[in-house]
Amino acid sequence: MKPRLKPQDGLRILPSAMTVAAICFGLSAVKLCVDAINRDQAFQESRYTVAMAFLAVAAILDALDGRAARMLNATSKMGEEIDSLADAVNFGVAPAFIVYLAIFNGTGLAQVGWVVALLYAVCIVLRLARFNARLHGDKPAYEQQFFTGMPAPAGAIGAIGPLAAKLQFPGDWWTSPTAQWVVAGWMIGVSLLVVSAIPMRKIHTFAVPRQMAVPLLALLALFIAAAIQYGYLVILLIIAAYVIHIPFAVRSRAWLADHPEVWDDKPKQQRQARRAIRRAQHPNRRVVRRSAGRLGLRRPGGQ
């Protein structure tokens, strides 16, 4: 008689099941956009909205499947390959088709739109291949805090940004050649960011102070409510916030590269060391700010 499987043995398939489900959501998003071809505007908008929601679900599953595998001690080489292929489909192929079908299909620049869609999908695949090639290489510990180039999920959000803007701010302008050239330029820019060597900060490296836990949870609830009511605007705000963070990530990585003494420290300790070095280099800045604030003085120049 064969021994019965332990409960945790049955759960070992869960991470791969989540990855397969993510692929289904990504391809279903493409199918929804195909169904919207030559339909009325209200039907198209509803299908595009659901398609973007499916991509969001795929991104959430992508973020959870790796963590589930590590928690269940179910990591495997096959799981890594499935996850990489799923990212290529969900964040490369699916957004490329969605943008092409929603913005370029049936227009005078349809061929140009297809070229930039292909460029984006190929850049996502190249980015994933580079990530896999460097996954097990020897590099300083601080490099684990950064992506090289824009990660695939962020690239997908950036790619569907024009569609979110079109749904949030509808009008005849979106059918003009100017709008389509702007979208084509945007897609090229996202594609270049994906395969670039620009460092992008990983979300889990941001430390949350204990006193900020409750306010951040309140902000999270507000964010979720805003995403439900104003989903397109939230997508645009996420894109803007991500672009704004890039110069700070570049500066942070450059500072870490110049200070090998903190490479083995945790991100929180590295930030404390950075602040200490900054205060040591500018010992009077903190005193001047406090004195000016206490006396109600303005900074020179009327600022």
UniProtKB/TrEMBL annotation:
It comes from the Bacteria. Keywords: Lipid biosynthesis, Lipid metabolism, Membrane, Phospholipid biosynthesis, Phospholipid metabolism, Transferase, Transmembrane, Transmembrane helix. GO terms for biological process: phospholipid biosynthetic process. This is CDP-diacylglycerol--serine O-phosphatidyltransferase. It is a multi-pass membrane protein. It is found in: Membrane. GO terms for molecular function: phosphotransferase activity, for other substituted phosphate groups. The keyword Lipid biosynthesis applies. Its main location: membrane. GO terms for cellular component: membrane. The lineage of its organism: Bacteria, Bacillati, Actinomycetota, Actinomycetes, Mycobacteriales. InterPro entries: CDP-alcohol_PTase-I, CDP-OH_P_trans, CDP-OH_PTrfase_TM_dom, CDP_ALCOHOL_P_TRANSF_CS. Belongs to the CDP-alcohol phosphatidyltransferase class-I family.
